[in-house]
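Checked the freezer inventory, then went back to the computational side. Two predictions to log before the end of the day. The first one is the construct we discussed on Monday; recording sequence and tokens without edits.
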Amino acid sequence: MCYYLVMIDLAFSPEWFFGKDVVIDLFSVLTLFLLTYFSLKYYKLGSSRKYLYLCISFFVIGVSFVLKILSNIAISHYTVSEAPHDVLINSTLGLIPSYWAIAWILLLLYRVLMLVGLYGLYSTYSDEPEKSQIVFTIFLLVIAAYFTRFSYFIFHLVALVLLGFITWRYLMNYKRTKLSTAKLLVYGFALITISQIFFVFTGLNPVLYVIGEIIQLLGFVSVLFTLILVLKHGKKKK
């Protein structure tokens, strides 16, 4: 029985890669929490509030990855061989067993926090929006995340668009400042953006999911490396 057909709606992971993606996601969580730490540290050096927004955004995305890992653990307790045939045909919440329900809820929370965190990153270099605009945008992102239960690639498509705008913002910042660290930041977010393209087309070939996971992690590590360089530069200036 095809395990991948079930996993594509909930965890995206092909059968032979299931478990290994958790390890990669753990490294992503570590990287994101380090990004949170260094963003907060740089903010405390007296830098602009944008580093506080970066800190909050990276933390939210890090928590989202923790929820994704928990979702995969929940799924690992319920194998496809135990699943009734209608789970493969119609994976609605009312038909799936309890472990799948838990996994679905955790995955929904992952998608919501991921999109909200990406919106926070996008807003870092924006003019400070009104509170009503922030609330309305987050509401739309929550709605978008909810409806991704019908099709996994919609979530990655929304993430792709947000990351595309984020990368564009950082590219404009690099063109304005011409700083090498700003250029590295563009490369890092460009990698994360590219990873979403692979995730969008995971349905064509499960190997694309593996490639996307690796590229995404490399993107986070690149951003972390850049932020460490920025922090060292900031200390020297102090």
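The second is the one RB wanted added to the comparison set:
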Amino acid sequence: MQSSIRVYAISGHRLFTESIAARFDMCSGIEFTGSTTDPDQAFSSIKDLMVDVLLIDANMYQGDAIKLTRDIRSGNPSLSIVIFGLDSGDEVILEFIESGANGYVSKESSFEDLVRTVGEVYEGRAPCSPRIAALVFDKIAQLSRERGFQRKARMILLTPREQEILEYIAGGLSNKQIAQQLHISLFTVKNHVHNLFEKLKVNYRREAIRYAYDNGLIEKKWLARAPANHVIASHAGQGGDGPEP
């Protein structure tokens, strides 16, 4: 059973990493496994040394530390990443968090702060100051508002006829059945289906139905309007995966 947190560092400052290596050696429960200035070396060392927590110097590679964080995170989803040496610029901290960092320590932090952060991210916690926590929540709220605006924009784009056809699709009706219900040609129905798929940014009927339900474009009562075999057909066979031929 592993008894120590295995820590590795990527930094352009050898003297710094050597000094923290010596200090980590005095910490119980932490094993400093090494450091490098070469990102390629880091990728292999992380796996070979079974690293638990990776320290990345925020100021290395002339601003490429954010890209490095993103690249390492994409190949190591379970690795804990701590950014050290950060300035207090809000946008930079958020960029590192968005790139996959689990925690950070600023230039003003002490070695004890670094040790505590390593322990916290290893345990699955996300240490950050109240100010940064507020910024993260503001970012989440902003993204939510943007997605809400996009959803409303898509709803507004649908014509009354497209809305009506979407409701029939949700009820499980095929293009031919929709044409019969609305007393229009099959060709016209296909055009409407194609246009509403384009507006909703979906490719399949099931995606259109899910999007419509999730965003309040249609009500579940429409599902009850169609016979059960029609509903099954819409999901599993007849026209279930897109505009019918």
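For RB: The first strand starts at residue 5 and ends at 10. Residues 221-243 have pLDDT under 50 and may be disordered. Let me know if you want it refolded.
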